[in-house]
Automatic annotation (TrEMBL):
Species for this entry: Enterovibrio norvegicus FF-454
Record key words, sorted: 4Fe-4S, Iron, Iron-sulfur, Metal-binding, Molybdenum, Nitrate assimilation, Oxidoreductase
Family: Belongs to the prokaryotic molybdopterin-containing oxidoreductase family. NasA/NapA/NarB subfamily.
Upper classification of the organism: Bacteria, Pseudomonadati, Pseudomonadota, Gammaproteobacteria, Vibrionales
GO CC term, one of those recorded: membrane
Protein name per the record: Nitrate reductase
Amino acid sequence: MSKNQSEWTKSTCPYCGVGCGIEAKIHTSGKLEVRGDSQHPANYGRLCSKGLALGDTVATEGRMLSPSIEGQNCSWDDALSHVASSLSSIIEQHGPDAVAFYVSGQLLTEDYYVANKLMKGFIGSGNIDTNSRLCMASAVAGHKRAFGEDIVPGNYEDIELADLVVLTGSNLAWCHPVIYQRLKAAKEKRGTKIVVIDPRETRSCEIADLHLPLFSGSDIALFNGLLAYLVKHQHINQTYIDSHTVGFEQTLTQAQRFSTITSVALETGLKTTDIETFYQWFCSTPLTTTVFSQGINQSTSGTDKANSIINCHLATGRIGLPGSTPFSITGQPNAMGGREVGGLANTLAAHLEFGNDEHFSLVKNFWKAPTLATKPGLKAIDMFDAIEKGNVKAIWVMATNPAVSLPDSDRINRILSDCPLVIVSDCVADTETLRHANVCLPAQGWSEKSGTVTNSERRISRQRRLLPTPGEGKPDWWIVSEVAKRMGFHDAFNYQTEADIFREYVAQTNIGNRHEDRSKRMLNLSGLNGMTNEAYNDLSPIQWPVNSTTGESERLFSDGQFSTPDGKAKFITVDHQPPANAISERYGLILNTGRIRDQWHTMTRTGLSSILNTHDNEPMLEIHPFNASDRGIRDGQLVKVSSNISTQVFRASVTRHVPVGQCFAPIHWSQTHCSGGKTDALIPAITDPISGQPELKATPVMVQPMFVKTSLQICRSSPFSQRQLSQFCAEYWVKQKVSGGYVYQLQFFNETDEVYATLLDSFVGDEDAIIQGGQPAQRRAVVFQQLKPTMAFSLCNIDSELRQPDIAQLLASHFTHQDIHAFLADSLSTRSPIICTCKQVTQSDIENLIAENPSIDTQTISELTLAGTGCGSCASDIEQCLLRACRSELSMVQKAG
Ligand SMILES: Nc1nc2c(c(=O)[nH]1)N[C@H]1C(S)=C(S)[C@@H](COP(=O)(O)OP(=O)(O)OC[C@H]3O[C@@H](n4cnc5c(=O)[nH]c(N)nc54)[C@H](O)[C@@H]3O)O[C@H]1N2
Ligand SMILES: Nc1nc2c(c(=O)[nH]1)N[C@H]1C(S)=C(S)[C@@H](COP(=O)(O)OP(=O)(O)OC[C@H]3O[C@@H](n4cnc5c(=O)[nH]c(N)nc54)[C@H](O)[C@@H]3O)O[C@H]1N2
Ligand code: SF4
Ligand SMILES: [Mo]
């Protein structure tokens, strides 16, 4: 049932691929309250900080409210007709391959299905690709090569049932927090051994028994070495290899290039003892689950990396068994759904493939498609190259922000600005991609949409409509279908509801697909055939395949039967290749990139939550103390990061968590939130030759300190426009959402007095009044408009080391007289970092408690402050506070001694 007596509606979190079930309730105030769904098998009631803050991101502020053409609002009918006629005329003049769709794992399965059907079936081109190309393409290609089909064999329970969990290229603690919590709980219960393979010491290492900080891109050396070791120490499962696989001998011969631990150590930079420990644990633990993610996929050898892992699991027969499986964990909420329906340019539909005549006629007949595409379309990077060359003349971007998230993003911006027709469907009003759009189409956001998503463990869940749509936003499937009808494909796209589309998709998974014939597709939803609208609305989370006779399947390949013509899995012969961008002397450091705990991708939604912006509120470049001191870089200083294609500004965070020779930057900031920190501008678009997935984890960069003189903080209730901001002539600015408004940090090369004079000039208009305070090295002012305080700023000479006040307090308190007075008199409290985002507990709250009671433990801190009682991911930060207090007490004792 979608609703229970207390009006809680069940739906699914729109962020990561864990696919947590939520329950939501709308209060009379209009506020959306969100809690974990205790019955959902992905999370059993747990949520992470992003899931818990969902209610905070459904504000109508910043939403796109109306369709527009060339910046002018218009009716839906005009917008849809314009899109349809423009696409049709380009196709007529230049052929179907002159148009392209770039879509996203954040669409619902129903949206994805109709977009794929329109492009491949009715426009007749393969040119639909998805941002999953940047995310899962290498895992998909690895699965297809080994298993004959893109299948994730295991499920989340396997992570709890395993005795050894290997996390490789995955920062589970921050990117799949609820799975991390499940793993942590399992470890506490059964003592699971955990190995983290990652060049960085991530938060996931906190529960690791062994961390292997290998050189970037050296995973194949490690796993080929493991395969050779398994054979040498007789830990392979020969019966399994003989009965269920092909190609072992050849793969082993290649892997034996790493037959000694020393050869593995040389290529990976790991200690021989650590390698030996890992290998021994793998050998002696039948219940081993290997979780892999972007540190594997986003690489020029990503597909081979995936197969090097799968090879070790095949050699030991550890596939699809409880607690024992390779497990590619998906990133986006519906990355899996997109892979199912055929959203990648190289798949036809529903695991039916190009280059297979039988599949071609099955799809053609099923869709009654007049011009079904006969060959794969362009993969993401190639698609943008083709626009640059003029071969593709129109692109429709849906639910992704390529101007920020594709590598070489400055170039992507240029390509989009030169492309004759850019159509963008998004739910927010301003993204870098939207700034290039000729046609903007307002989509419904998460809380307004209805449909299905599939999570990492193949579990299909319903997203349900919770709130009314602001403005004229429409479901993505509706927008695509209306355009299709206007292009002349009325009958094929005449859907009334999302349930109609889901039923059709279910039926497509059945065509030519008998369950008893094992070489057919495992993606089969025959058990859901002919489902009624009511059953669709009430659909409970269900794992595919859903067989009409045997029901759902928790695990696949348990019987050693694969989706290949002979039913056998394939060993894939792979060899270690260093990342395409081997380090160059001139640059000096390798840039690794990824995610932080509380932000989602390009921040179009998490950037709206004041709560989520308290954890890390600036683009930080993590750099090792050795490399920082070599370059004269202090912690917290601004730095210039240059690759061979761009230069970006970040704030340095000096930490031993990144290895010497590497630095790490988050991917979230873009020009809508910051003047620098745009990581993908630095990364050249070099791809894996098989999967087309770009290398995003190893770019040579040069890092230099910047010497700013003046720092300015401004708070105001509404955001500055781009034009207003540019008037400040700051070397760097960053915007942060806070309760009641926005805080801007700006940095200048100019002297404080010069900046102050310019500011006064620009703010004292006819109606403005300014009250000033502070000392010469630290100026403060509150700006009034029509006698109401609206904005405050605090200016500081960087070298004076004066403290910055918590300027956001003024907004939160609506500029009370008391706070204004304290601010101007320099007695407003300073900012203390937030430790617990969910419960908004600051570091000083915790430190004060420790000062009062030095023998306090983490549990009592949690009980007294509630820190760590939300999503639980700050537990280690609380421990750090205790550790720091302990250290300083110790040093005091030592000094006294
Ligand atoms: N908070 C948050 N969570 C998210 C997202 C988000 O934006 N924010 N996005 C979601 C999406 S779409 C995705 S795809 C997932 C990604 O989830 P993850 O893949 O876990 O995240 P990343 O931080 O991209 O990269 C994982 C790790 O790979 C390591 N790595 C880099 N190079 C190598 C290498 O050569 N070998 C190995 N073994 N490791 C390496 C990096 O240091 C990094 O810690 O997260 C999902 N969850
Ligand atoms: N350097 C580097 N780059 C990376 C990565 C990395 O690790 N390193 N990771 C890559 C990966 S794995 C990924 S998945 C990508 C993610 O990159 P993107 O997909 O570009 O990131 P998002 O910010 O999630 O963009 C989603 C857009 O869709 C909008 N949106 C949200 N919901 C809907 C909806 O229902 N309908 C419509 N029409 N629009 C909607 C949002 O407002 C937003 O503008 O980034 C990739 N880029
Ligand atoms: S782990 Fe967090 S972001 Fe991922 S689905 Fe669950 S609540 Fe959402
Ligand atoms: Mo992703």
